[in-house]
């Protein structure tokens, strides 16, 4: 997808490492305005080439006082002013504006973290819809504070402690918020962002999934030559399936799909997804059983990053071999490989400014992003790489992918390799995990909870515990159950259903029934634990 071709003015986010940066992107897209996130230390040309209408400087964990603190490139504010581009600094972004434009930022006498009340001092600019004296609760996260404003700037709101909470220079089209409007802990934050974009910046809303579909088809057709053939790697998940359906719509019979059974799939996954591909989606799919190839390479490997890299490499080897077989059949070698890489995959696989690397912190490499060998003989097509999961589901709906399939919970590319902690080939860990996972998921479906959960799964832990089964002492395996709710996979809460302001967790009876079913049905398991950790601090997957 070419950012310049979407039917919406671009709001560009410069990322300085805040855990909330991706939320700004999501919130803006929810307003039907296209938004992208790039490194805050990107060269000026990378910014100007995207021709944004608005640039937002994100928050971050840094202090403008440190020598290596990340910053926007030289000439950025001059370019923005000369081209009528609006700039909004959030938290660290505000302090960066103040410091770079001649103001003073000092270490705060009283740090401000969490919920804080602010009061409007001027009903102009970013708070033009407010009255002087209006108050609102916002989410603060800063230790430094503004001591002196640059020339031409004014304070428009202060915190209850007297610290600067919002600034602006309407003439220069530069604004700043010391708090995070993008998080739900700032209840009026979305209203502020909406007013800023539509009333101050006069941004036009016109971005939709229909636009994305039309644009992606154009891009695929212009990228893939009229005689070129394409391989699509189907995992059985929503992402690769929507990507395949999209590419198939663009190039028809020149798409050749492959589904690889790597020995790391869920219970009866191979049979179930192949039936869906053939009967519902009518996609031509070749199924390759590569169980031995994958498991032999993973034998003895316990480091999760190494497992991901090995799996990514083996996938590419299989795709290369598949391409070679197609070459013999077609008389020419396929040129491209389609993958269902999503925007969160890209974001999570890049490091942050100020970390000695370059972007938002590397949490883990994704097999679609971090595990591809440099000598790969196929060129990549990633039609979904600027989209979030909920946007992909919406795109799939437009493409008539069955709703039941679109509602499937996400499944990691490396499969059960990242749900068996340690060596996946040790004993019968994979078989145990498949059985446990099937019981857990089926129980969730039977309880009518599946569609209220973003992702649910079981994890095989590399520990044993003492138990008593059949009046005998056992020393068996422990498995963990995890269920989370999320909007886009970038942040997540452990499962709780909020209905009419009442929060429902898994009922005691539900957990008790699941635990009994597992321990009575799966030989080798005598203890069940539940993961009640959110993201952050955890990731959704355990590895």
TrEMBL record:
EC number(s) from the headed UniProt entry: 6.3.5.2
Keywords attached to this entry: ATP-binding, Glutamine amidotransferase, GMP biosynthesis, Ligase, Nucleotide-binding, Purine biosynthesis
GO MF terms held by the record: ATP binding; GMP synthase activity
List of residues binding ATP: 235-241
Signal peptide from the UniProt entry: none
Reactions catalysed according to its record: XMP + L-glutamine + ATP + H2O = GMP + L-glutamate + AMP + diphosphate + 2 H(+)
Source domain of life: Eukaryota
Gene Ontology cellular component terms for the protein in this record: cytosol
Every GMPS ATP-PPase domain range: 207-408
The protein's annotated pathway: Purine metabolism; GMP biosynthesis; GMP from XMP (L-Gln route): step 1/1
Role: Catalyzes the conversion of xanthine monophosphate (XMP) to GMP in the presence of glutamine and ATP through an adenyl-XMP intermediate.
Protein name (record): GMP synthase [glutamine-hydrolyzing]
Native source species: Malus domestica
């Amino acid at each position: 997808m070419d950012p310049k071709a979407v039917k919406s003015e671009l709001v560009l986010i410069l990322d300085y490492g805040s855990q909330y940066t991706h939320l700004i992107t999501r919130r803006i897209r929810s307003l039907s305005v296209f938004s992208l996130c790039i490194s805050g230390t990107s060269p000026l040309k990378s910014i100007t080439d995207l021709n944004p209408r608005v640039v937002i400087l994100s928050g971050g964990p840094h202090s403008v006082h440190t020598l290596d603190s990340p910053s926007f490139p030289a000439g950025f504010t001059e370019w923005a002013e000369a081209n009528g581009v609006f700039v909004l600094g959030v938290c660290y972004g505000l302090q960066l504006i103040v410091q770079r434009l001649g103001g003073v930022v000092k270490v705060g006498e009283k740090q401000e973290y969490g919920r804080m009340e602010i009061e409007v001092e001027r009903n102009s600019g970013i708070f033009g819809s407010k009255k002087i004296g209006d108050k609102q609760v916002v989410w603060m996260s800063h230790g430094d504070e503004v001591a002196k404003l640059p020339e031409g700037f004014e304070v428009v709101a202060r915190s209850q402690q007297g610290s600067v909470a919002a600034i602006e220079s309407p003439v220069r089209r530069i604004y700043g918020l010391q708090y995070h409007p993008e998080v739900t802990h700032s209840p009026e934050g979305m209203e502020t962002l909406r007013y800023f974009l539509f009333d101050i910046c006069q941004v036009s809303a016109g971005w939709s999934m229909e636009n994305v579909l039309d644009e992606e088809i154009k891009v695929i057709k212009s990228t893939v030559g009229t005689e070129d053939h394409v391989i699509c790697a189907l995992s059985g998940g929503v992402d690769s399936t929507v990507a395949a359906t999209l590419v198939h719509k663009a190039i028809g019979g020149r798409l050749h799909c492959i589904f690889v059974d790597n020995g790391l799939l869920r219970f009866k996954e191979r049979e179930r997804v192949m039936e869906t591909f053939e009967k519902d989606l009518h996609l031509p799919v070749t199924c390759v059983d590569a169980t031995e190839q994958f498991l032999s390479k993973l034998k003895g490997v316990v480091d999760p990053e190494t497992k991901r890299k090995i799996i990514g490499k083996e996938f590419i080897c299989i795709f290369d071999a598949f391409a070679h077989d197609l070459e013999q059949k077609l008389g020419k070698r396929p040129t491209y490989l389609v993958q269902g890489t999503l925007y969160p995959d890209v974001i999570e696989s890049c490091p942050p400014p100020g970390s000695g690397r370059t972007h938002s912190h590397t949490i883990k490499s994704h097999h679609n992003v971090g595990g591809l060998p440099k000598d790969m003989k196929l060129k990549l097509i990633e039609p979904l790489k600027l989209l979030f999961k909920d946007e992909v589901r919406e795109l799939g709906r437009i493409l008539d992918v069955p709703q039941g399939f679109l509602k499937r919970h996400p499944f990691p590319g490396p499969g059960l390799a990242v749900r068996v902690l340690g060596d996946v080939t040790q004993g019968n860990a994979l078989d145990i995990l498949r059985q446990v996972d099937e019981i857990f998921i089926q129980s969730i479906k039977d309880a009518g909870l599946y569609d209220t959960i973003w992702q649910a799964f079981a994890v095989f832990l590399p520990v044993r515990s003492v138990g008593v089964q059949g009046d005998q002492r056992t020393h068996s395996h422990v498995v963990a159950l995890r269920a989370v709710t999320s909007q886009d996979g970038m942040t997540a809460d452990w499962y709780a259903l909020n209905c009419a302001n009442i929060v429902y967790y898994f009922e005691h009876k539900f957990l008790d029934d699941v635990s009994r079913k597992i321990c009575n049905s799966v030989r080798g398991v005598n203890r069940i634990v539940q993961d009640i950790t959110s993201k952050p601090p955890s990731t959704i997957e355990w590895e």
